Amino acid sequence: MSTASKKIAVPAAAGPGAAAPVPPVPVTAAPVTAVTCLEDRAHVERAVTLDLAAGVQKLRLGPVSALAVDRTLHAELTAGHPATVLDVRIVRDWVPRGPRPSDDDSALRRRAHALEEERLDLERRRDRLRARLDLLGGLAADLLREIGEGVGHGESEGPRWSAALDRVDAERDAFGERLRAVEARSAALGAELGDVHRAMDLAEEEPAELLGHIELTVEAAVAGPVELRLSHLVPCALWRPAYRALLDGDSGTPGSSVTPEHSVTLETEAMVWQRTGEDWSGVRLTLSTARSALATEPPSLGEDRLTLKDRTAAERRTVDVELREEEIGDLGPAPVLGLPGVDDGGEARVLHSPAPVSVPSDGRAHRVPLSVFTTAASSEYASSPEVSPLVTQVVRFDNRSGHALLAGPVDLIRGSGFSGRGTVEFTTPRAPVELAFGSRDDHRVVRETEESRDTTGITQRTVVTRTVRLRVSRFSAPGELGDRVVVLRERIPVSEVAAVEVRLREEACSPVPDAVDAEGIVRWDVTLPPGGRRTVTLVYELSASSKVAGL
Question: What is the dotted CATH code of the domain comprising 107-203?
Answer without folding.
Answer: 1.10.287
